[in-house]
Automatic annotation (TrEMBL):
This is Protein kinase domain-containing protein. Residues 12-314 form the Protein kinase domain. One of its GO terms (molecular function) is ATP binding. Keywords: ATP-binding, Kinase, Membrane, Nucleotide-binding, Transferase, Transmembrane, Transmembrane helix. The lineage of its organism: Bacteria, Bacillati, Chloroflexota, Ktedonobacteria, Ktedonobacterales. The chain crosses the membrane at residues 424-449. CDD domains: STKc_PknB_like. Residues 320-340 are annotated as: Disordered. The keyword Transmembrane applies. Residues 324-340 have a biased composition (Basic and acidic residues). Pfam families: Pkinase. It comes from the Bacteria. Signal peptide: none annotated.
Protein backbone atom coordinates (compact mmCIF):
# COMPACT_ATOMS: atom_id res chain seq x y z
CA UNK A 1 0.00 0.00 0.00
CA UNK A 2 1.44 3.37 -1.07
CA UNK A 3 -0.59 5.50 1.31
CA UNK A 4 1.62 7.26 3.84
CA UNK A 5 -1.06 8.25 6.35
CA UNK A 6 0.25 7.79 9.89
CA UNK A 7 3.90 7.88 8.83
CA UNK A 8 6.40 10.49 10.02
CA UNK A 9 8.26 12.49 7.42
CA UNK A 10 10.67 15.32 8.18
CA UNK A 11 9.39 15.59 11.77
CA UNK A 12 5.74 15.76 10.64
CA UNK A 13 3.06 13.12 11.08
CA UNK A 14 0.99 12.64 7.91
CA UNK A 15 -2.70 12.96 8.87
CA UNK A 16 -4.64 12.49 5.64
CA UNK A 17 -4.35 12.63 1.88
CA UNK A 18 -5.60 16.01 0.61
CA UNK A 19 -5.03 15.72 -3.13
CA UNK A 20 -3.54 13.27 -5.56
CA UNK A 21 -2.16 14.35 -8.94
CA UNK A 22 -0.36 12.83 -11.87
CA UNK A 23 3.10 13.53 -10.43
CA UNK A 24 2.60 14.07 -6.72
CA UNK A 25 0.41 13.54 -3.67
CA UNK A 26 -0.31 16.21 -1.07
CA UNK A 27 -0.87 15.29 2.59
CA UNK A 28 -2.04 17.30 5.55
CA UNK A 29 0.64 16.85 8.22
CA UNK A 30 1.27 18.12 11.73
CA UNK A 31 4.56 18.70 13.49
CA UNK A 32 5.05 16.14 16.22
CA UNK A 33 6.30 18.65 18.79
CA UNK A 34 4.98 22.14 18.06
CA UNK A 35 1.69 21.10 16.43
CA UNK A 36 1.94 23.29 13.32
CA UNK A 37 -0.08 21.98 10.39
CA UNK A 38 1.55 21.96 6.97
CA UNK A 39 1.07 20.48 3.53
CA UNK A 40 3.64 17.89 2.48
CA UNK A 41 4.00 17.07 -1.18
CA UNK A 42 5.59 13.74 -2.15
CA UNK A 43 6.10 11.83 -5.37
CA UNK A 44 2.89 9.95 -6.14
CA UNK A 45 2.61 6.32 -5.05
CA UNK A 46 2.87 4.80 -8.50
CA UNK A 47 6.14 6.61 -9.22
CA UNK A 48 7.54 5.92 -5.76
CA UNK A 49 7.15 2.23 -6.49
CA UNK A 50 9.43 2.51 -9.53
CA UNK A 51 12.11 5.01 -8.50
CA UNK A 52 14.70 3.69 -10.95
CA UNK A 53 12.52 3.94 -14.05
CA UNK A 54 12.71 7.03 -16.33
CA UNK A 55 9.34 8.20 -15.02
CA UNK A 56 10.42 7.77 -11.38
CA UNK A 57 13.68 9.63 -11.96
CA UNK A 58 11.83 12.39 -13.82
CA UNK A 59 9.47 12.87 -10.88
CA UNK A 60 12.42 13.26 -8.51
CA UNK A 61 14.01 15.80 -10.86
CA UNK A 62 10.76 17.70 -11.06
CA UNK A 63 10.54 17.92 -7.27
CA UNK A 64 14.05 19.27 -7.04
CA UNK A 65 13.34 21.78 -9.81
CA UNK A 66 10.27 23.01 -7.95
CA UNK A 67 12.23 23.36 -4.71
CA UNK A 68 14.98 25.36 -6.40
CA UNK A 69 12.50 27.61 -8.18
CA UNK A 70 10.42 28.43 -5.10
CA UNK A 71 13.53 28.87 -2.95
CA UNK A 72 14.50 31.83 -5.13
CA UNK A 73 11.10 33.52 -4.85
CA UNK A 74 9.88 35.49 -1.88
CA UNK A 75 6.58 37.11 -2.78
CA UNK A 76 3.25 37.54 -0.99
CA UNK A 77 1.36 35.87 -3.85
CA UNK A 78 3.69 32.86 -4.17
CA UNK A 79 3.32 29.88 -1.85
CA UNK A 80 6.57 29.68 0.14
CA UNK A 81 8.65 26.58 0.75
CA UNK A 82 9.38 25.57 4.35
CA UNK A 83 11.59 22.58 3.73
CA UNK A 84 12.84 20.15 1.08
CA UNK A 85 14.36 16.76 1.73
CA UNK A 86 14.74 13.03 1.07
CA UNK A 87 13.97 10.34 3.58
CA UNK A 88 13.77 6.56 3.78
CA UNK A 89 10.80 5.46 5.86
CA UNK A 90 11.44 1.73 5.89
CA UNK A 91 14.59 -0.41 5.71
CA UNK A 92 15.41 -1.25 2.13
CA UNK A 93 12.51 1.02 1.11
CA UNK A 94 12.66 3.70 -1.59
CA UNK A 95 13.86 7.20 -0.90
CA UNK A 96 10.94 9.61 -0.62
CA UNK A 97 11.49 13.17 -1.85
CA UNK A 98 9.19 15.69 -0.25
CA UNK A 99 8.35 19.41 -0.02
CA UNK A 100 6.97 21.08 3.11
CA UNK A 101 4.68 24.05 2.45
CA UNK A 102 1.96 26.03 4.27
CA UNK A 103 -1.38 24.29 4.53
CA UNK A 104 -4.28 26.39 3.18
CA UNK A 105 -7.64 24.94 4.17
CA UNK A 106 -9.53 26.95 1.53
CA UNK A 107 -7.91 24.90 -1.22
CA UNK A 108 -7.35 25.95 -4.80
CA UNK A 109 -8.99 28.81 -6.68
CA UNK A 110 -10.97 26.32 -8.75
CA UNK A 111 -12.40 24.42 -5.77
CA UNK A 112 -13.10 27.69 -3.94
CA UNK A 113 -15.10 29.04 -6.89
CA UNK A 114 -17.06 25.79 -7.03
CA UNK A 115 -17.95 26.09 -3.35
CA UNK A 116 -19.04 29.70 -3.77
CA UNK A 117 -21.33 28.71 -6.61
CA UNK A 118 -22.78 25.56 -5.08
CA UNK A 119 -23.00 26.50 -1.40
CA UNK A 120 -23.49 30.27 -1.43
CA UNK A 121 -25.31 30.75 -4.72
CA UNK A 122 -22.81 33.06 -6.42
CA UNK A 123 -23.18 33.33 -10.16
CA UNK A 124 -21.11 31.43 -12.68
CA UNK A 125 -19.28 32.50 -14.75
CA UNK A 126 -17.84 35.25 -12.61
CA UNK A 127 -17.98 38.97 -13.33
CA UNK A 128 -15.24 40.96 -15.04
CA UNK A 129 -14.59 42.82 -11.77
CA UNK A 130 -14.01 39.62 -9.80
CA UNK A 131 -11.86 38.12 -12.55
CA UNK A 132 -9.82 41.31 -12.65
CA UNK A 133 -9.14 40.99 -8.93
CA UNK A 134 -7.67 37.51 -9.48
CA UNK A 135 -5.80 38.61 -12.59
CA UNK A 136 -3.88 41.36 -10.83
CA UNK A 137 -2.69 39.04 -8.07
CA UNK A 138 -1.71 36.26 -10.46
CA UNK A 139 0.09 38.63 -12.81
CA UNK A 140 1.96 40.23 -9.92
CA UNK A 141 3.25 36.84 -8.76
CA UNK A 142 4.21 35.73 -12.25
CA UNK A 143 5.93 39.01 -13.07
CA UNK A 144 8.05 38.57 -9.96
CA UNK A 145 8.98 35.04 -11.05
CA UNK A 146 9.79 36.25 -14.57
CA UNK A 147 11.99 38.99 -13.17
CA UNK A 148 13.93 36.23 -11.40
CA UNK A 149 14.37 34.22 -14.59
CA UNK A 150 11.64 31.62 -13.89
CA UNK A 151 8.64 30.73 -16.04
CA UNK A 152 5.92 28.61 -14.52
CA UNK A 153 4.63 26.81 -17.66
CA UNK A 154 1.56 25.32 -15.96
CA UNK A 155 -0.82 28.18 -15.18
CA UNK A 156 -4.38 27.02 -14.39
CA UNK A 157 -6.98 27.57 -11.64
CA UNK A 158 -5.94 24.51 -9.64
CA UNK A 159 -2.37 25.82 -9.30
CA UNK A 160 -3.46 28.92 -7.40
CA UNK A 161 -4.24 28.35 -3.73
CA UNK A 162 -6.56 30.58 -1.71
CA UNK A 163 -6.20 32.19 1.68
CA UNK A 164 -9.38 34.04 2.69
CA UNK A 165 -8.63 37.23 4.60
CA UNK A 166 -11.54 38.49 6.68
CA UNK A 167 -10.04 41.62 8.24
CA UNK A 168 -9.31 43.82 5.25
CA UNK A 169 -9.42 47.65 5.04
CA UNK A 170 -12.81 48.94 3.95
CA UNK A 171 -11.42 51.94 2.09
CA UNK A 172 -8.72 50.35 -0.07
CA UNK A 173 -8.72 50.11 -3.87
CA UNK A 174 -10.87 46.96 -3.80
CA UNK A 175 -13.56 48.31 -1.49
CA UNK A 176 -16.03 48.26 -4.39
CA UNK A 177 -15.80 44.44 -4.38
CA UNK A 178 -17.20 44.07 -0.86
CA UNK A 179 -20.52 42.76 -2.22
CA UNK A 180 -18.65 40.07 -4.18
CA UNK A 181 -16.69 38.82 -1.16
CA UNK A 182 -19.06 39.08 1.83
CA UNK A 183 -17.32 36.18 3.63
CA UNK A 184 -13.79 37.54 3.26
CA UNK A 185 -11.48 38.55 0.47
CA UNK A 186 -9.43 35.78 -1.19
CA UNK A 187 -5.69 36.11 -1.59
CA UNK A 188 -4.10 34.07 -4.36
CA UNK A 189 -0.86 32.16 -3.88
CA UNK A 190 0.81 30.66 -6.92
CA UNK A 191 1.90 27.06 -6.34
CA UNK A 192 3.20 23.96 -8.14
CA UNK A 193 6.43 25.04 -9.79
CA UNK A 194 7.14 21.44 -10.78
CA UNK A 195 7.21 22.37 -14.48
CA UNK A 196 9.03 25.64 -13.93
CA UNK A 197 11.95 26.39 -16.20
CA UNK A 198 14.88 28.75 -15.90
CA UNK A 199 15.35 30.94 -18.94
CA UNK A 200 18.19 33.21 -17.89
CA UNK A 201 20.11 32.34 -21.04
CA UNK A 202 17.20 33.31 -23.29
CA UNK A 203 15.93 29.90 -24.34
CA UNK A 204 14.31 27.00 -22.51
CA UNK A 205 15.27 23.64 -24.02
CA UNK A 206 12.90 21.51 -21.96
CA UNK A 207 10.53 19.32 -23.90
CA UNK A 208 6.91 20.34 -24.32
CA UNK A 209 5.13 20.21 -20.97
CA UNK A 210 2.02 21.73 -19.45
CA UNK A 211 -1.75 21.32 -19.48
CA UNK A 212 -2.94 21.38 -23.13
CA UNK A 213 -6.11 23.35 -22.32
CA UNK A 214 -3.99 26.33 -21.21
CA UNK A 215 -0.72 25.86 -23.13
CA UNK A 216 0.59 28.56 -25.45
CA UNK A 217 1.23 27.51 -29.08
CA UNK A 218 5.01 27.50 -28.58
CA UNK A 219 4.69 25.04 -25.72
CA UNK A 220 3.52 22.40 -28.20
CA UNK A 221 6.64 22.81 -30.35
CA UNK A 222 9.51 20.38 -30.32
CA UNK A 223 12.44 22.48 -29.03
CA UNK A 224 14.90 20.39 -31.01
CA UNK A 225 13.47 21.69 -34.28
CA UNK A 226 14.91 24.78 -35.89
CA UNK A 227 11.40 26.12 -36.57
CA UNK A 228 10.32 25.92 -32.93
CA UNK A 229 9.61 29.06 -30.95
CA UNK A 230 11.32 29.26 -27.60
CA UNK A 231 9.16 29.15 -24.50
CA UNK A 232 9.50 32.37 -22.52
CA UNK A 233 7.48 34.51 -20.09
CA UNK A 234 4.85 35.25 -22.74
CA UNK A 235 3.76 31.61 -22.52
CA UNK A 236 2.59 32.30 -18.96
CA UNK A 237 0.77 35.40 -20.23
CA UNK A 238 -1.09 33.29 -22.79
CA UNK A 239 -2.02 30.65 -20.20
CA UNK A 240 -3.20 33.28 -17.71
CA UNK A 241 -5.37 34.86 -20.42
CA UNK A 242 -6.92 31.45 -21.10
CA UNK A 243 -7.60 30.97 -17.38
CA UNK A 244 -9.27 34.37 -16.88
CA UNK A 245 -11.21 33.89 -20.13
CA UNK A 246 -12.52 30.61 -18.74
CA UNK A 247 -13.58 32.17 -15.43
CA UNK A 248 -15.51 34.97 -17.19
CA UNK A 249 -17.19 32.93 -19.93
CA UNK A 250 -17.56 29.52 -18.29
CA UNK A 251 -15.60 27.82 -21.06
CA UNK A 252 -12.00 27.54 -22.21
CA UNK A 253 -10.76 29.38 -25.27
CA UNK A 254 -10.45 26.04 -27.10
CA UNK A 255 -11.73 22.57 -26.24
CA UNK A 256 -11.07 19.07 -27.55
CA UNK A 257 -8.47 16.34 -27.43
CA UNK A 258 -4.77 17.05 -27.08
CA UNK A 259 -4.23 16.90 -30.84
CA UNK A 260 -7.25 19.11 -31.49
CA UNK A 261 -6.04 21.61 -28.92
CA UNK A 262 -2.61 21.67 -30.56
CA UNK A 263 -4.24 22.62 -33.85
CA UNK A 264 -6.56 25.21 -32.29
CA UNK A 265 -3.85 26.94 -30.28
CA UNK A 266 -1.69 27.16 -33.38
CA UNK A 267 -4.24 28.08 -36.03
CA UNK A 268 -7.76 28.90 -34.75
CA UNK A 269 -8.52 32.55 -33.89
CA UNK A 270 -10.02 32.85 -30.40
CA UNK A 271 -13.62 33.98 -30.03
CA UNK A 272 -13.97 37.36 -28.24
CA UNK A 273 -15.13 36.71 -24.66
CA UNK A 274 -18.09 39.10 -24.91
CA UNK A 275 -19.64 36.73 -27.48
CA UNK A 276 -20.09 34.10 -24.75
CA UNK A 277 -20.81 36.58 -21.96
CA UNK A 278 -22.56 39.72 -23.27
CA UNK A 279 -22.35 41.37 -19.84
CA UNK A 280 -18.59 41.81 -20.28
CA UNK A 281 -17.31 45.18 -21.54
CA UNK A 282 -16.62 44.85 -25.23
CA UNK A 283 -13.38 46.78 -24.76
CA UNK A 284 -11.98 43.67 -23.04
CA UNK A 285 -12.16 41.75 -26.30
CA UNK A 286 -9.16 43.56 -27.74
CA UNK A 287 -7.21 43.01 -24.51
CA UNK A 288 -7.72 39.24 -24.64
CA UNK A 289 -7.16 38.91 -28.36
CA UNK A 290 -3.75 40.50 -27.93
CA UNK A 291 -2.78 38.36 -24.91
CA UNK A 292 -3.92 35.28 -26.89
CA UNK A 293 -1.94 36.13 -30.01
CA UNK A 294 -0.34 33.12 -31.71
CA UNK A 295 3.14 34.64 -31.77
CA UNK A 296 4.80 35.69 -28.49
CA UNK A 297 6.02 39.01 -29.91
CA UNK A 298 2.42 40.00 -30.73
CA UNK A 299 1.35 39.75 -27.10
CA UNK A 300 1.88 42.35 -24.40
CA UNK A 301 5.53 43.09 -23.62
CA UNK A 302 5.10 41.51 -20.17
CA UNK A 303 2.39 39.94 -18.09
CA UNK A 304 1.83 43.03 -15.94
CA UNK A 305 1.11 45.07 -19.08
CA UNK A 306 -1.69 42.61 -19.82
CA UNK A 307 -3.14 43.01 -16.32
CA UNK A 308 -2.84 46.81 -16.48
CA UNK A 309 -4.62 46.96 -19.85
CA UNK A 310 -7.43 44.85 -18.40
CA UNK A 311 -7.65 47.02 -15.28
CA UNK A 312 -7.71 50.22 -17.32
CA UNK A 313 -10.77 49.00 -19.21
CA UNK A 314 -12.54 48.26 -15.93
CA UNK A 315 -11.64 51.68 -14.52
CA UNK A 316 -12.99 53.47 -17.57
CA UNK A 317 -16.11 51.33 -17.44
CA UNK A 318 -16.66 52.23 -13.78
CA UNK A 319 -16.20 55.93 -14.54
CA UNK A 320 -18.74 55.70 -17.34
CA UNK A 321 -21.27 53.92 -15.12
CA UNK A 322 -20.75 56.42 -12.29
CA UNK A 323 -21.25 59.32 -14.71
CA UNK A 324 -24.45 57.73 -16.00
CA UNK A 325 -25.70 57.25 -12.44
CA UNK A 326 -24.95 60.89 -11.58
CA UNK A 327 -26.74 62.05 -14.72
CA UNK A 328 -29.73 59.87 -13.92
CA UNK A 329 -29.87 61.15 -10.34
CA UNK A 330 -29.56 64.72 -11.63
CA UNK A 331 -32.44 64.21 -14.03
CA UNK A 332 -34.51 62.64 -11.28
CA UNK A 333 -33.82 65.61 -8.99
CA UNK A 334 -34.71 68.02 -11.79
CA UNK A 335 -38.00 66.23 -12.37
CA UNK A 336 -38.74 66.23 -8.64
CA UNK A 337 -37.76 69.87 -8.34
CA UNK A 338 -39.98 70.78 -11.28
CA UNK A 339 -42.86 68.89 -9.72
CA UNK A 340 -42.42 70.73 -6.41
CA UNK A 341 -42.15 74.06 -8.23
CA UNK A 342 -45.43 73.44 -10.03
CA UNK A 343 -47.02 72.49 -6.73
CA UNK A 344 -45.86 75.80 -5.24
CA UNK A 345 -47.18 77.55 -8.35
CA UNK A 346 -50.57 76.02 -7.71
CA UNK A 347 -50.74 77.11 -4.09
CA UNK A 348 -48.50 80.08 -3.26
CA UNK A 349 -47.78 82.31 -6.28
CA UNK A 350 -49.16 85.83 -5.53
CA UNK A 351 -51.57 87.42 -8.02
CA UNK A 352 -53.37 90.72 -8.27
CA UNK A 353 -55.81 91.79 -5.55
CA UNK A 354 -58.72 91.66 -7.96
CA UNK A 355 -58.22 87.89 -8.29
CA UNK A 356 -58.39 87.49 -4.55
CA UNK A 357 -61.72 89.25 -4.38
CA UNK A 358 -63.33 86.78 -6.74
CA UNK A 359 -61.38 83.86 -5.30
CA UNK A 360 -62.68 84.54 -1.83
CA UNK A 361 -66.22 84.63 -3.10
CA UNK A 362 -65.75 81.36 -4.99
CA UNK A 363 -64.47 79.59 -1.89
CA UNK A 364 -67.33 80.73 0.30
CA UNK A 365 -65.42 83.42 2.20
CA UNK A 366 -66.62 86.97 2.81
CA UNK A 367 -66.14 89.14 -0.24
CA UNK A 368 -64.28 92.41 0.48
CA UNK A 369 -66.00 95.58 -0.64
CA UNK A 370 -65.29 97.04 -4.00
CA UNK A 371 -63.78 100.10 -2.38
CA UNK A 372 -61.24 97.90 -0.69
CA UNK A 373 -60.28 96.49 -4.08
CA UNK A 374 -59.61 99.96 -5.49
CA UNK A 375 -55.95 100.26 -4.62
CA UNK A 376 -54.66 103.56 -6.01
CA UNK A 377 -56.92 106.34 -4.64
CA UNK A 378 -57.59 104.90 -1.24
CA UNK A 379 -53.92 104.79 -0.19
CA UNK A 380 -53.02 108.45 -0.70
CA UNK A 381 -51.73 110.18 2.41
CA UNK A 382 -54.31 112.67 3.82
CA UNK A 383 -53.41 116.36 4.09
CA UNK A 384 -53.25 118.27 7.31
CA UNK A 385 -56.57 119.92 6.45
CA UNK A 386 -58.45 116.60 6.61
CA UNK A 387 -60.74 116.17 9.60
CA UNK A 388 -60.42 113.42 12.23
CA UNK A 389 -63.34 111.39 10.81
CA UNK A 390 -61.57 111.41 7.46
CA UNK A 391 -58.47 109.89 9.11
CA UNK A 392 -60.61 107.19 10.63
CA UNK A 393 -62.10 106.36 7.27
CA UNK A 394 -58.60 106.23 5.76
CA UNK A 395 -57.41 103.76 8.45
CA UNK A 396 -60.40 101.58 7.69
CA UNK A 397 -59.48 101.70 4.02
CA UNK A 398 -55.87 100.67 4.84
CA UNK A 399 -57.11 97.84 7.01
CA UNK A 400 -59.34 96.61 4.24
CA UNK A 401 -56.46 96.70 1.80
CA UNK A 402 -54.18 94.78 4.25
CA UNK A 403 -56.84 92.16 4.55
CA UNK A 404 -56.99 91.96 0.78
CA UNK A 405 -53.19 91.53 0.44
CA UNK A 406 -53.19 88.78 3.08
CA UNK A 407 -55.86 87.00 1.12
CA UNK A 408 -53.90 87.43 -2.10
CA UNK A 409 -51.66 84.40 -1.44
CA UNK A 410 -54.45 81.87 -1.82
CA UNK A 411 -56.37 82.32 -5.10
CA UNK A 412 -55.60 82.83 -8.79
CA UNK A 413 -58.80 83.35 -10.89
CA UNK A 414 -59.61 86.86 -12.29
CA UNK A 415 -63.05 87.33 -13.92
CA UNK A 416 -62.69 90.98 -15.06
CA UNK A 417 -66.30 91.21 -16.24
CA UNK A 418 -67.45 91.19 -12.61
CA UNK A 419 -65.53 94.37 -11.92
CA UNK A 420 -66.95 95.98 -15.05
CA UNK A 421 -70.50 95.00 -14.07
CA UNK A 422 -69.98 96.42 -10.57
CA UNK A 423 -68.89 99.79 -12.01
CA UNK A 424 -71.95 99.99 -14.29
CA UNK A 425 -74.20 99.05 -11.38
CA UNK A 426 -72.75 101.82 -9.31
CA UNK A 427 -73.29 104.35 -12.06
CA UNK A 428 -76.91 103.28 -12.41
CA UNK A 429 -77.47 103.60 -8.68
CA UNK A 430 -75.93 107.07 -8.65
CA UNK A 431 -78.09 108.05 -11.63
CA UNK A 432 -81.23 106.82 -9.93
CA UNK A 433 -80.35 108.68 -6.75
CA UNK A 434 -79.74 111.81 -8.80
CA UNK A 435 -83.11 111.48 -10.52
CA UNK A 436 -84.81 110.86 -7.18
CA UNK A 437 -83.24 113.97 -5.70
CA UNK A 438 -84.19 115.96 -8.80
CA UNK A 439 -87.77 114.76 -8.55
CA UNK A 440 -87.94 115.62 -4.84
CA UNK A 441 -86.50 119.04 -5.57
CA UNK A 442 -89.06 119.71 -8.28
CA UNK A 443 -91.89 118.63 -5.96
CA UNK A 444 -90.63 120.89 -3.19
CA UNK A 445 -90.37 123.80 -5.63
CA UNK A 446 -93.93 123.30 -6.80
CA UNK A 447 -95.22 123.13 -3.22
CA UNK A 448 -93.44 126.35 -2.31
CA UNK A 449 -94.78 128.15 -5.35
CA UNK A 450 -98.34 126.96 -4.62
CA UNK A 451 -98.12 128.10 -1.03
CA UNK A 452 -96.96 131.54 -2.05
CA UNK A 453 -100.01 132.09 -4.25
Amino acid sequence: MNMLVGKNLGGYRLIRLVESGGMGDIYLAQHARIGRKVAIKVVCGDLRAVPNTPEGKQAAVRFEREARAVAELDHENILPLYHFGDEVLEPDGPTITYLVMPYLSDGSLWSWLQRRTQQYGFSWPISAEEAGYYLVQAATALQYAHDHGIIHRDIKPTNFLIRVEKNVPKNDEYAHLAHIFPHGRPKLLLADFGLAAFYRHGRSMHRSVGTPLYMAPEQFDDPSLATSVHVGPSADQYALAVMIYQLMTGRAVFEGTASQLLHHHHHTPPTPPSVYNPSLPQELDAVFLRALAKKPEQRYPNIMAFAQAYDEVLRENRKKKNAEKKEFRGQAKSREGGKRFLQREDTTLPVSPIEKVVGTAKHGGSLPSLAAATVHPALEEPSEEKTQPRKKIQMQSRTSFSTLVAASMQFKTIPLYLLQQSTIFGAIVIGLVFLLLLTIGMLLTMLLLGHAR
